[in-house]
Amino acid sequence: MTWLITGGAGYIGAHVARAMAGAGERVVALDDLSAGVPARLPAEVPLVEGSTLDAGLLERVLAEHGVTGVVHLAARKQVAESVAQPTRYYRENVGGLATLLEAVAGAGIERFLFSSSAAVYGNPDVDLITEDTACAPVNPYGETKLAGEWLVRAAGQAHGITTVCLRYFNVAGAGAPELADTGVFNIVPMVFDRLTRDEAPRIFGADYPTPDGTCVRDYIHVADLAEAHLAAARRLDGKDLSGDLTVNIGRGEGVSVRELISVIGEVTGDRRAPLVEDRRPGDAPRAVASAERAAEVLGWRARRGVREMVESAWRGWQLHHAK
Ligand SMILES: NC(=O)c1ccc[n+]([C@@H]2O[C@H](COP(=O)([O-])OP(=O)(O)OC[C@H]3O[C@@H](n4cnc5c(N)ncnc54)[C@H](O)[C@@H]3O)[C@@H](O)[C@H]2O)c1
Fold it and tell me: How remote is the CA of residue 256 from the centroid of ligand 1, in Å?
Protein backbone atom coordinates (compact mmCIF):
# COMPACT_ATOMS: atom_id res chain seq x y z
CA MET A 1 0.00 0.00 0.00
CA THR A 2 0.98 3.62 -0.45
CA TRP A 3 -0.72 6.09 1.88
CA LEU A 4 -1.35 9.75 1.15
CA ILE A 5 -1.36 11.76 4.38
CA THR A 6 -3.03 15.14 3.90
CA GLY A 7 -1.94 17.72 6.47
CA GLY A 8 1.20 15.59 6.82
CA ALA A 9 3.40 18.54 7.82
CA GLY A 10 1.03 19.46 10.67
CA TYR A 11 1.38 18.63 14.35
CA ILE A 12 -0.59 15.37 14.28
CA GLY A 13 0.07 14.58 10.59
CA ALA A 14 3.84 14.53 11.09
CA HIS A 15 3.48 12.11 14.00
CA VAL A 16 1.25 9.89 11.86
CA ALA A 17 3.69 10.06 8.94
CA ARG A 18 6.56 9.13 11.22
CA ALA A 19 4.66 6.24 12.83
CA MET A 20 3.48 4.81 9.51
CA ALA A 21 6.80 5.22 7.70
CA GLY A 22 8.60 3.80 10.75
CA ALA A 23 6.36 0.74 10.58
CA GLY A 24 7.34 0.14 6.97
CA GLU A 25 4.35 1.70 5.16
CA ARG A 26 5.00 3.75 2.01
CA VAL A 27 3.85 7.30 2.69
CA VAL A 28 3.54 10.58 0.77
CA ALA A 29 2.42 13.84 2.44
CA LEU A 30 0.32 16.65 0.99
CA ASP A 31 0.19 19.97 2.80
CA ASP A 32 -0.52 23.58 1.78
CA LEU A 33 1.86 24.72 4.56
CA SER A 34 -0.71 27.18 5.93
CA ALA A 35 0.17 25.74 9.35
CA GLY A 36 2.58 22.94 8.44
CA VAL A 37 6.34 22.71 8.87
CA PRO A 38 8.16 20.59 6.22
CA ALA A 39 11.09 19.82 8.57
CA ARG A 40 8.75 17.77 10.77
CA LEU A 41 8.57 15.06 8.11
CA PRO A 42 11.04 12.16 8.07
CA ALA A 43 13.48 12.19 5.13
CA GLU A 44 11.86 9.16 3.48
CA VAL A 45 8.44 10.85 3.22
CA PRO A 46 8.09 13.08 0.14
CA LEU A 47 6.07 16.28 0.63
CA VAL A 48 3.81 17.68 -2.09
CA GLU A 49 2.98 21.31 -1.41
CA GLY A 50 -0.63 22.03 -2.33
CA SER A 51 -4.24 22.17 -1.25
CA THR A 52 -7.00 19.60 -0.93
CA LEU A 53 -9.08 22.14 -2.87
CA ASP A 54 -6.91 21.63 -5.97
CA ALA A 55 -8.60 18.78 -7.89
CA GLY A 56 -5.99 18.62 -10.67
CA LEU A 57 -3.12 18.38 -8.20
CA LEU A 58 -4.89 15.65 -6.21
CA GLU A 59 -5.48 13.59 -9.36
CA ARG A 60 -1.79 13.86 -10.30
CA VAL A 61 -0.49 13.03 -6.82
CA LEU A 62 -2.72 9.97 -6.46
CA ALA A 63 -1.63 8.67 -9.88
CA GLU A 64 2.08 9.55 -9.72
CA HIS A 65 2.58 8.01 -6.29
CA GLY A 66 0.32 5.00 -6.88
CA VAL A 67 -1.69 5.90 -3.77
CA THR A 68 -3.90 3.06 -2.47
CA GLY A 69 -5.14 4.61 0.80
CA VAL A 70 -5.66 8.10 2.24
CA VAL A 71 -5.33 9.47 5.78
CA HIS A 72 -7.05 12.85 5.68
CA LEU A 73 -5.93 15.25 8.41
CA ALA A 74 -5.72 18.55 6.51
CA ALA A 75 -8.17 21.01 8.03
CA ARG A 76 -8.55 24.31 9.82
CA LYS A 77 -8.97 23.54 13.52
CA GLN A 78 -9.49 26.68 15.61
CA VAL A 79 -12.91 26.92 17.20
CA ALA A 80 -12.92 30.73 17.68
CA GLU A 81 -11.74 31.28 14.09
CA SER A 82 -14.53 28.98 12.87
CA VAL A 83 -17.10 31.14 14.67
CA ALA A 84 -15.67 34.27 13.01
CA GLN A 85 -15.15 32.68 9.55
CA PRO A 86 -17.71 29.88 9.11
CA THR A 87 -17.74 29.99 5.30
CA ARG A 88 -13.96 29.54 5.21
CA TYR A 89 -14.24 26.54 7.56
CA TYR A 90 -16.97 24.90 5.48
CA ARG A 91 -15.03 25.61 2.26
CA GLU A 92 -11.72 24.23 3.52
CA ASN A 93 -12.88 21.42 5.78
CA VAL A 94 -15.96 20.20 3.91
CA GLY A 95 -15.19 21.51 0.40
CA GLY A 96 -11.60 20.24 0.60
CA LEU A 97 -12.88 16.85 1.72
CA ALA A 98 -15.43 16.66 -1.12
CA THR A 99 -12.73 17.50 -3.68
CA LEU A 100 -10.43 14.88 -2.18
CA LEU A 101 -13.14 12.19 -2.11
CA GLU A 102 -13.95 12.84 -5.78
CA ALA A 103 -10.29 12.33 -6.67
CA VAL A 104 -10.13 9.22 -4.44
CA ALA A 105 -13.22 7.73 -6.09
CA GLY A 106 -11.91 8.63 -9.56
CA ALA A 107 -8.62 6.88 -8.83
CA GLY A 108 -10.41 3.74 -7.59
CA ILE A 109 -8.86 4.04 -4.09
CA GLU A 110 -10.73 1.87 -1.59
CA ARG A 111 -9.42 2.97 1.82
CA PHE A 112 -10.01 6.28 3.56
CA LEU A 113 -9.30 7.40 7.11
CA PHE A 114 -10.75 10.70 8.34
CA SER A 115 -9.60 12.89 11.28
CA SER A 116 -12.74 13.70 13.19
CA SER A 117 -13.03 15.22 16.62
CA ALA A 118 -14.82 14.98 19.94
CA ALA A 119 -16.20 18.38 18.86
CA VAL A 120 -18.89 16.45 16.93
CA TYR A 121 -20.56 15.56 20.24
CA GLY A 122 -20.97 19.11 21.54
CA ASN A 123 -21.65 19.01 25.29
CA PRO A 124 -23.42 15.73 26.09
CA ASP A 125 -24.42 15.21 29.70
CA VAL A 126 -22.97 11.70 30.08
CA ASP A 127 -20.22 10.15 32.16
CA LEU A 128 -18.49 8.45 29.23
CA ILE A 129 -19.08 9.45 25.62
CA THR A 130 -19.57 6.40 23.40
CA GLU A 131 -19.70 6.47 19.62
CA ASP A 132 -23.49 6.11 19.92
CA THR A 133 -23.86 9.28 22.02
CA ALA A 134 -25.88 11.80 20.01
CA CYS A 135 -23.84 14.31 17.98
CA ALA A 136 -24.76 17.97 18.50
CA PRO A 137 -21.77 20.20 17.72
CA VAL A 138 -21.83 23.69 19.25
CA ASN A 139 -19.58 25.57 16.82
CA PRO A 140 -18.87 25.65 13.06
CA TYR A 141 -15.60 23.72 13.50
CA GLY A 142 -17.48 20.79 15.09
CA GLU A 143 -20.17 21.07 12.42
CA THR A 144 -17.60 20.73 9.64
CA LYS A 145 -16.26 17.57 11.31
CA LEU A 146 -19.74 16.06 11.63
CA ALA A 147 -20.68 17.03 8.05
CA GLY A 148 -17.31 15.56 7.03
CA GLU A 149 -18.18 12.23 8.66
CA TRP A 150 -21.54 12.14 6.86
CA LEU A 151 -19.83 12.87 3.57
CA VAL A 152 -17.12 10.26 4.15
CA ARG A 153 -19.72 7.55 4.88
CA ALA A 154 -21.96 8.52 1.95
CA ALA A 155 -19.04 8.62 -0.51
CA GLY A 156 -17.77 5.34 0.91
CA GLN A 157 -21.11 3.70 0.25
CA ALA A 158 -21.53 5.21 -3.21
CA HIS A 159 -18.02 4.41 -4.44
CA GLY A 160 -17.09 1.24 -2.56
CA ILE A 161 -14.55 2.93 -0.27
CA THR A 162 -13.98 1.42 3.17
CA THR A 163 -13.82 4.27 5.67
CA VAL A 164 -12.76 4.97 9.25
CA CYS A 165 -13.61 8.15 11.17
CA LEU A 166 -11.39 8.67 14.23
CA ARG A 167 -12.85 11.08 16.79
CA TYR A 168 -9.86 12.46 18.69
CA PHE A 169 -10.32 13.83 22.20
CA ASN A 170 -7.80 16.38 23.66
CA VAL A 171 -4.48 15.82 21.95
CA ALA A 172 -1.28 16.80 23.80
CA GLY A 173 2.42 16.04 24.01
CA ALA A 174 5.08 15.46 21.40
CA GLY A 175 6.75 12.31 20.06
CA ALA A 176 9.97 14.34 19.79
CA PRO A 177 10.62 17.98 20.75
CA GLU A 178 10.87 19.10 17.10
CA LEU A 179 7.38 17.69 16.41
CA ALA A 180 5.67 19.68 19.16
CA ASP A 181 2.57 21.76 18.51
CA THR A 182 3.81 25.32 18.05
CA GLY A 183 0.33 26.89 18.29
CA VAL A 184 -1.05 28.25 21.55
CA PHE A 185 -4.66 27.07 21.19
CA ASN A 186 -4.84 24.13 23.60
CA ILE A 187 -4.57 24.15 27.38
CA VAL A 188 -1.03 22.75 27.78
CA PRO A 189 0.70 25.31 25.52
CA MET A 190 -1.61 28.03 26.91
CA VAL A 191 -0.36 27.35 30.44
CA PHE A 192 3.27 27.17 29.25
CA ASP A 193 2.74 30.51 27.54
CA ARG A 194 1.44 32.12 30.75
CA LEU A 195 4.30 30.73 32.84
CA THR A 196 6.88 31.85 30.27
CA ARG A 197 5.42 35.38 30.55
CA ASP A 198 5.74 35.17 34.33
CA GLU A 199 1.94 35.06 34.69
CA ALA A 200 -0.25 32.63 36.65
CA PRO A 201 -2.20 30.02 34.66
CA ARG A 202 -5.88 30.77 34.27
CA ILE A 203 -8.81 28.52 35.12
CA PHE A 204 -12.10 29.40 33.42
CA GLY A 205 -14.72 28.41 35.95
CA ALA A 206 -14.19 26.52 39.21
CA ASP A 207 -17.87 26.05 40.06
CA TYR A 208 -18.73 23.24 37.66
CA PRO A 209 -20.45 20.10 38.99
CA THR A 210 -17.17 18.13 38.94
CA PRO A 211 -15.07 16.80 41.87
CA ASP A 212 -12.84 19.91 42.11
CA GLY A 213 -15.18 22.32 40.32
CA THR A 214 -13.04 22.61 37.16
CA CYS A 215 -13.75 21.09 33.73
CA VAL A 216 -12.77 17.48 33.15
CA ARG A 217 -11.27 16.32 29.84
CA ASP A 218 -9.74 13.22 28.27
CA TYR A 219 -6.14 13.93 27.20
CA ILE A 220 -4.43 11.70 24.65
CA HIS A 221 -0.72 11.66 23.83
CA VAL A 222 -0.11 12.47 20.17
CA ALA A 223 2.27 9.48 19.89
CA ASP A 224 -0.57 7.18 21.05
CA LEU A 225 -2.86 8.89 18.55
CA ALA A 226 -0.33 8.22 15.77
CA GLU A 227 -0.26 4.54 16.75
CA ALA A 228 -4.07 4.49 16.57
CA HIS A 229 -3.80 5.66 12.95
CA LEU A 230 -1.36 2.89 12.19
CA ALA A 231 -3.73 0.37 13.79
CA ALA A 232 -6.64 1.78 11.77
CA ALA A 233 -4.59 1.72 8.55
CA ARG A 234 -3.67 -1.92 9.16
CA ARG A 235 -7.33 -2.67 9.87
CA LEU A 236 -8.30 -0.98 6.59
CA ASP A 237 -5.68 -3.05 4.82
CA GLY A 238 -7.34 -6.25 6.10
CA LYS A 239 -9.03 -8.19 3.33
CA ASP A 240 -12.22 -8.83 5.33
CA LEU A 241 -13.19 -5.22 6.03
CA SER A 242 -15.89 -3.32 4.23
CA GLY A 243 -18.23 -0.51 5.21
CA ASP A 244 -17.41 2.15 7.76
CA LEU A 245 -16.10 2.44 11.29
CA THR A 246 -16.39 5.35 13.71
CA VAL A 247 -14.10 5.22 16.72
CA ASN A 248 -13.33 7.45 19.71
CA ILE A 249 -9.63 8.02 20.34
CA GLY A 250 -9.12 8.85 23.99
CA ARG A 251 -7.88 7.27 27.19
CA GLY A 252 -11.25 6.88 28.88
CA GLU A 253 -9.94 8.79 31.91
CA GLY A 254 -10.97 12.23 33.05
CA VAL A 255 -8.41 14.79 34.21
CA SER A 256 -9.55 18.12 35.63
CA VAL A 257 -8.04 21.46 34.64
CA ARG A 258 -6.77 21.86 38.19
CA GLU A 259 -5.12 18.42 38.13
CA LEU A 260 -3.52 19.16 34.76
CA ILE A 261 -2.17 22.51 35.97
CA SER A 262 -0.75 20.78 39.02
CA VAL A 263 1.14 18.27 36.81
CA ILE A 264 2.40 21.19 34.70
CA GLY A 265 3.63 22.83 37.93
CA GLU A 266 5.54 19.67 38.89
CA VAL A 267 7.11 19.30 35.44
CA THR A 268 8.08 22.94 34.93
CA GLY A 269 8.97 23.60 38.60
CA ASP A 270 6.68 26.66 38.46
CA ARG A 271 3.92 25.89 40.95
CA ARG A 272 2.32 29.31 41.24
CA ALA A 273 -1.38 29.26 42.14
CA PRO A 274 -3.77 29.54 39.19
CA LEU A 275 -6.16 32.49 38.81
CA VAL A 276 -9.82 31.52 38.75
CA GLU A 277 -11.83 33.49 36.21
CA ASP A 278 -15.40 33.31 34.91
CA ARG A 279 -16.63 30.33 32.92
CA ARG A 280 -16.21 30.56 29.15
CA PRO A 281 -19.38 30.11 27.11
CA GLY A 282 -19.68 26.69 25.49
CA ASP A 283 -17.36 24.72 27.81
CA ALA A 284 -18.82 21.35 28.85
CA PRO A 285 -18.22 20.35 32.50
CA ARG A 286 -17.00 16.92 31.43
CA ALA A 287 -15.98 15.29 28.12
CA VAL A 288 -14.41 11.86 28.51
CA ALA A 289 -14.34 9.12 25.87
CA SER A 290 -15.34 5.54 26.19
CA ALA A 291 -12.20 3.92 24.75
CA GLU A 292 -13.73 0.45 24.46
CA ARG A 293 -14.60 0.37 20.77
CA ALA A 294 -11.04 1.35 19.79
CA ALA A 295 -9.70 -1.55 21.85
CA GLU A 296 -12.23 -3.93 20.36
CA VAL A 297 -12.08 -3.05 16.67
CA LEU A 298 -8.56 -1.62 16.33
CA GLY A 299 -6.83 -3.63 19.06
CA TRP A 300 -5.43 -0.29 20.24
CA ARG A 301 -5.27 1.39 23.64
CA ALA A 302 -3.39 4.50 24.73
CA ARG A 303 -0.24 3.70 26.71
CA ARG A 304 1.06 7.10 27.77
CA GLY A 305 -0.22 9.10 30.72
CA VAL A 306 -0.71 12.80 31.41
CA ARG A 307 2.71 13.27 33.01
CA GLU A 308 4.41 11.93 29.86
CA MET A 309 2.28 14.26 27.74
CA VAL A 310 3.24 17.29 29.81
CA GLU A 311 6.95 16.37 30.00
CA SER A 312 7.23 15.82 26.24
CA ALA A 313 5.25 18.98 25.45
CA TRP A 314 7.50 20.97 27.82
CA ARG A 315 10.65 19.72 26.04
CA GLY A 316 9.07 20.82 22.73
CA TRP A 317 8.05 24.19 24.17
CA GLN A 318 11.59 24.83 25.44
CA LEU A 319 13.05 23.95 22.02
CA HIS A 320 10.67 26.24 20.12
CA HIS A 321 10.66 29.08 22.62
CA ALA A 322 14.31 29.14 23.65
CA LYS A 323 15.31 32.73 24.28
N1 LIG B 1 -5.03 19.03 17.76
C2 LIG B 1 -6.16 18.56 18.28
O3 LIG B 1 -6.34 18.61 19.52
C4 LIG B 1 -7.23 17.92 17.41
C5 LIG B 1 -8.34 17.35 18.03
C6 LIG B 1 -9.33 16.76 17.23
C7 LIG B 1 -9.17 16.73 15.85
N8 LIG B 1 -8.08 17.30 15.27
C9 LIG B 1 -7.96 17.25 13.81
O10 LIG B 1 -6.72 16.67 13.46
C11 LIG B 1 -6.27 17.20 12.22
C12 LIG B 1 -4.84 17.69 12.37
O13 LIG B 1 -4.79 18.67 13.39
P14 LIG B 1 -3.41 19.29 13.92
O15 LIG B 1 -3.61 19.56 15.37
O16 LIG B 1 -2.28 18.49 13.47
O17 LIG B 1 -3.46 20.70 13.17
P18 LIG B 1 -2.34 21.44 12.27
O19 LIG B 1 -2.89 22.77 11.92
O20 LIG B 1 -1.00 21.35 12.92
O21 LIG B 1 -2.31 20.50 10.99
C22 LIG B 1 -3.17 20.65 9.89
C23 LIG B 1 -2.29 20.64 8.66
O24 LIG B 1 -3.11 20.69 7.49
C25 LIG B 1 -2.58 21.68 6.61
N26 LIG B 1 -3.75 22.17 5.85
C27 LIG B 1 -4.81 22.89 6.32
N28 LIG B 1 -5.70 23.08 5.33
C29 LIG B 1 -5.20 22.47 4.22
C30 LIG B 1 -5.67 22.29 2.89
N31 LIG B 1 -6.86 22.79 2.50
N32 LIG B 1 -4.89 21.59 2.02
C33 LIG B 1 -3.71 21.06 2.40
N34 LIG B 1 -3.21 21.20 3.64
C35 LIG B 1 -3.96 21.89 4.55
C36 LIG B 1 -1.90 22.71 7.47
O37 LIG B 1 -0.86 23.40 6.81
C38 LIG B 1 -1.35 21.85 8.61
O39 LIG B 1 -0.04 21.39 8.33
C40 LIG B 1 -7.26 18.29 11.84
O41 LIG B 1 -8.18 17.72 10.93
C42 LIG B 1 -7.93 18.61 13.15
O43 LIG B 1 -9.24 19.10 12.95
C44 LIG B 1 -7.10 17.90 16.02
Answer: 25
